[in-house]
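user: can you give me the structure for this one chain? tokens are fine.
assistant: on it. calling the predictor now.
[tool input]
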Amino acid sequence: MNTPSGVFSPPRPPVVPAPSLPLAPAAPLAPAARTAAVPSYAGFLPGLESAAPADEDSLWLQDALLGPHSADIVRYLGLARDCGGGPVLDLGCGAGRLAVPFARQGFRVEAVDRDADSLERLRAWGRRIGPHVSERLVTTRADLAGLRLRGGYRLVLLAGAMISAVPPGARPGLLREIAAHLEPGGALALDFTAHQLRGLAQDPSRTWAFQVPRFDGVEEWTVARQEFDLDGMREHITYHSVRTGKPGSERVVTATRKWIVDPERLTAELHGAGLRVERRRGHRVDERTQSVLLVCRARD
């Protein structure tokens, strides 16, 4: 993973559910967040991994949220080898969490993201490793909604729950575009957070407090608030962070919105795009949430 200090996969942040923590930006973090935090039994915070870094200092939060997902790199690399190699298309690539390791393993990768700063960090990471990696990386700045592809791919990745960032109205078109550019024997691999809708209806919000692992002398604590809108099938996450260690302290509020993915609707959209689900792997996060990986291939 690309972090502010180089290539590193950070340790899991200590975390505790904190439904009563104050959320106002000016309010201090509850003492319980500092003294009673324990590791999450699930290993990561469900659905919080979509935070996009607003600046260099925000990269630590993004790395903390994505760090526990690093094991999927090995799984996706194995899938790429099963598909016969590259080229690989990494959609919503960010700063190269998957694209750069793939290039290091000898795969040609096209990395697509709408954020220019993330793409530049990806290219810089590749350059730091050397030309044997940077020359295998091609970056494309584009929004996934309305994406138009040019080449053919052995493996297409929608990792890190990126499918939830695509509006439902644009999702069928994106899946059709991907299917049209899969080479024979190629595969689409995507993961998403599957919520139990009944559970969300009963409890449409939850709050988490955790420390962000940092190695630059700054201590950072974050309270993340998830709010679910079942009528619009939307999810809104707000991150309230307090950073100390620099002169004074700093309070930062960031937010992200994404779509709640209905697994049955997604399966129907994949079928409509000419794809079949060859493999489904689910990992239970908590009593109402699963992390789901789908491997899809062209229908016969």
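assistant: here you go. The first helix runs from residue 31 to 35. The first strand starts at residue 2 and ends at 3.
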